[in-house]
Design a protein that fits this description.
Length: 403
């Protein structure tokens, strides 16, 4: 029997407790031994709940118990999660975490410590909830030069954008629903301003490139500027609006960005709706590979954490190399990244010549929004677009178009 401890009994931690108990037999069959939750650490009490029997409030009980080989960290946030995880690894206990903030900020340091101790630091649930994306990238796509990772990496914003597009919901109502469903972060800005997706693309990019991509350096725009008028243009074009997190090697540059974008029906991410995440990885040999599944939620994410626990149990004193070095990956200024844009300006079709003069030959789009007209630019750089847009009067909005 393998004894584990769970640090943090919130949405994900309670999910891990459920998965281990509900799927006890299947886990025993697949692992070859039983998993047992010996401790659950939380500040709170849960009177009358089954977890009460194993609930503790002092992390040292876990750290000092030689029977606990594997620790789950589902507390979220940087501290005390970082201190607790580092202490567990220092004592020779492997760790499985769902904490993207922790991994984006301290992933390399914790991986290095695990390697020194010949144990494992697994973070498969930190990106994409229940979607197996980290392990396939590390172990299945490892013969490829990964040239692009583009994903819908935040379930909450995808849920909001889907409800706004399909049901005409207000932003606020859709966010409340996502919070009720347990998808959203404690601070909604982390979702809606794109910070959560930013950390996740930093993690995936670090794995793809084998070097540290600092999330602080990724230009990030959330969905708070998306309006119902933007959806009218999307509907007119037959396209969708998604919050995309991308990193891409192009013409000797490495770019990364998080921003809303118009996505066309032929793109594999077009049909990724509700809380689902989708991640498209492009390798120089394998070409496009697509991952899809529930990007948030208690049991989906807990399933991925528990799978990491099982892998840690299979490789108890054998470090599995992650190929993510501390060497910093320089990111190019996105000003030179070339894209197509939809710009919305006050006025009518009579502005077409002026728009063509500013951006080059594009396509006028009339979505029936009073007092304005849209224009799809040709592919131009971010800087060319920004300079041209700044020279125009009456700009009401702009949104990128995903290639
Ligand atoms: N708030 C996150 C999301 C949770 O909505 O995707 C999963 O990381």
């Amino acid at each position: 029997m393998r004894q584990i401890a769970i640090m943090g009994y919130g949405t994900i931690g309670s999910g891990v407790f459920d998965v281990v108990n509900t799927n006890r037999e299947i886990i025993r069959k697949n692992l070859g031994e039983e998993l047992r939750v010996k401790y659950v650490l939380d500040l709170r009490d849960f009177p009358g709940e089954p977890v009460e029997e194993v609930l503790i409030h002092d992390v040292n009980i876990i750290l000092e118990d030689p029977e606990v080989d594997i620790v789950v960290e589902t507390m979220g946030g940087l501290e005390p999660a970082f201190t607790f995880v580092r202490s567990a690894l220092e004592r020779g206990k492997s760790v499985a975490t769902s904490n993207k903030e922790l991994v984006a900020k301290h992933g390399v340091e914790l991986l290095t410590l695990a390697k020194e101790k010949n144990i494992n630091f697994f973070f498969g649930a930190s990106v994409g909830g229940g979607i197996p994306i980290i392990r396939p990238m590390l172990r299945s796509l490892c013969a490829d030069d990964i040239e692009e990772v583009t994903g819908i990496l935040n379930g909450t914003t995808n849920y909001i954008l889907t409800k706004m597009a399909q049901e005409g919901s207000s932003f606020e109502d859709a966010l409340l629903e996502a919070q009720d469903n347990g998808f959203a972060e404690r601070k909604p800005e982390a979702d809606v301003e794109g910070f959560d997706a930013c950390r996740k693309i930093a993690i995936l990019s670090s794995i793809a490139l084998g070097r540290q991509v600092d999330f602080e350096e990724i230009p990030t725009e959330g969905i708070t500027g998306i309006t119902k008028e933007d959806f009218l243009y999307a509907a007119k074009l037959g396209w969708a609006i998604k919050l995309l997190a991308s990193s891409r090697k192009e013409n000797g540059h490495v770019y990364a960005m998080v921003a809303p974008a118009l996505v066309q029906p032929a793109h594999p991410l077009f049909a990724v709706c509700d809380v689902f995440n989708g991640i498209m990885v492009h390798g120089n040999m394998v070409d496009d590979v697509m991952f899809y599944g529930r990007g948030a939620g208690s049991h989906a994410t807990a399933s991925a954490v528990t799978a990491d626990v099982m892998d840690a149990a299979r490789h108890l004193h054998q470090n599995i190399y992650a190929g993510w070095s501390g060497e910093k990956q320089e990111l190019s200024d996105v000003g030179s990244w070339e894209k197509q844009f939809l710009i919305r300006v006050e006025g009518d079709a009579s502005r077409e010549a002026e728009l063509a003069q500013a951006f080059g030959q594009g396509i006028l789009v009339d979505a029936g929004v009073a007092g304005e007209v849209g224009y799809l630019t040709p592919v131009i750089s971010e800087k060319e677009f920004a300079d041209a847009a700044a020279s125009l009067s009456g700009v009401r909005g702009r949104i990128r178009v995903q290639a």
